[in-house]
Amino acid sequence: AAVCQRGTPVRCGQAIRLTHLGTGRNLHSHRFTSPLSGNQEVSAFGEAGEGDYLDDWTVVCSGTYWVRDDEVRFQHTSTDVFLSVTGEQYGRPIHGQKEVHGMATSSQNNYWKVMEGIFMQPSEAFQMEQYHAEL
């Protein structure tokens, strides 16, 4: 419901929106068939990060927080499909671009891992959560 502050840890199980920086559109899905694989369509939607409830994805990971080097899944909060890619490629107008779609079941095709981006150091409050002060 609010914009995350840069560097705020993302909890496993938290609902998020993924916004493409270049277009300002959100990763979106709905109950339409994708053109190549026949799975559920995933597209870009909204303007300047504004969209609707069909832009919400749940972070599925092990542990408490999404960790940069760990694999993660994204499950669509409204339709329960997993964000996936299986290898189907478009011919035109974006030759070689793979189709990203939603799959009803979890599999190796719906694990994602951060490969690029900026690493933000955890906030001091987050670092304190990681340690116990009992003894």
UniProtKB/TrEMBL annotation:
SUPFAM superfamilies: MIR domain (SSF82109). Keywords: Repeat, Signal. Pfam families: MIR. Gene3D superfamilies: 2.80.10.50. Residues 7-62, 63-117 form the MIR domain. SMART domains: MIR. This is SDF2 factor. It comes from Regulus satrapa (Golden-crowned kinglet).
